[in-house]
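INFO  loader      accepted 1 record
INFO  loader      residues=133
INFO  predictor   begin
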Amino acid sequence: MSTTKQQALDFTKYERARIVGARGLQLAMDAPLLIDVTQEELERVNFDSLKLAEMELDSGVLPISVKRPMPKKRDAELKKVLAEVERRDVSDEEKEKIEKDTEKEIATEGEIMELATPEDEVEEPTGAEGAEE
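INFO  predictor   done
INFO  writer      dumping tokens
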């Protein structure tokens, strides 16, 4: 299989839909075909611009590339903490102290969700009900 044919198969269904839709719109607005199609093939697809665009994509003649952003890796801090905890020359008490310090740091930096208690569920009076009291 050629590399262009292989490239056409590597697109996700969403990328294929976007590419075929955009190229179909171009063909509907009288853009030239990039593949040689006989009159018989045109009649077989009923002059449908989306089917023609799909034929172009499958043949690999569309000059298109897709940029897929990769997520940023933020595991450097995690590796640092794990390296501190997993050192073999550190006693268990020191490991527990490091873990507690790390937990305390996480608690001060981020919000920890607590379980709701029935006391938290008390409704406050609003609107006309609150004005009557």
